[in-house]
Amino acid sequence: MPISDILQEHRPSISFEFFPPKTKKAASNLFGTIRELEALHPTFVSVTYGAGGSTRDLTHQLVLKILKETAIPAVPHLTCVSHDEAEIDGILDRYAQAGVDTILALRGDLPRDRADYDRTADAFPYAADLIGFIRAFNASGRHPAGGFEIGVAGFPEGHPETPNRTAEMDYLKAKVDAGADYICTQLFFDNHDFLDFRDRCELAGITVPIIAGIMPITTASGMVRMAELAAGARFPAKLLRHLDGLHDDSEGFAAAGVAYATEQCRELLEADVAGLHFYTLNKSGATKQIAGDLGLAGGRA
Predict the structure, then answer these.
(1) Domains: count for the chain
(2) CATH (domain of 27)
(3) Catalytic position from the list 9, 17, 157, 263
C-alpha cells in the first residue's frame, strides 16, 4: 500500500531515518538497530543520501538490504545536486527493478569538498524539477509496480536559504503541485513551529499528509552538533530548562532529552499529527523508549 494511503488510513504512523554506514562494524551495528526497531512495525524507514550524491552506492546497498532482509518498506533519499538526467534515470531504474516504491526527493546539499561548486550545470535546479522527472519516469511504464510515490521535505522552522516564509510556502506548493504525495519535515523542538507550519500549508492549499520530524537529544555534544548541521535549529526555553545543569551528567542529560521528546510527541499526537518520523542517528534506544512510553506500534497509538 502506498505510504500516503497508510498515512490517510492509520494515524499516526511511525517511521525512522538511518544513514548508510561506512564500515563493516558500523553496518552490523546498524542492522541490529533496524532489527530492534522492526518490532515496532514502522510504516517505513528512510535512508539518507550524502551531499552531492557522495553515498550513492552505500545508500542503494542499505536500501536493498532492508528490503531483502526485513518486512519494512525502505525509502531512499534522492537529491538533485551534482547529477544529470542520465544519472538520475539510472538510479530510478535500479530502484524500480529492486522493488522500491517510494522516493524522498530533495534538492540536497552542495558537495562539502567543493565550496565553489557551480549549480548552473545541474539538470535539476530545484526539488520540484526532480519530482517532475520522477513523474515522467513513472509515465514511461518502466516501474514494475506502476511508478514511484514521492515524498518531499518541509521546514517548520523555515528553510535556511529562504527567509521570506511566504516564498517558502510557494516553493513547497510547487513541489506538491509537481506531484509530491506527502511531506516529511525537518527536525524541530517547538511544537508551535510545526502546528503553525501545518496551518500555513492548509491555507496554501496543500492537502497531502505531513509527517513531523523528531530527534531526541541524548548528549550535550550531539546538541551542539545538531545546531551546526540543522542550520541553527532552535532550542526553546522549555527544552533548555529540561537540560539545565545536566551537561556533566550524561545519564541525566539523556533521560531529560528523551522525556522532552516524549512529551513533544504526546502533544503532537493530541493535535492529530499524521505521523512521527524519528531521526535515529542509527541508534534505537531513545526511539524505542519513546514509542514504548506512548504505546506506539504498528503505525497506531
Answers:
(1) 1
(2) 3.20.20.220
(3) 17
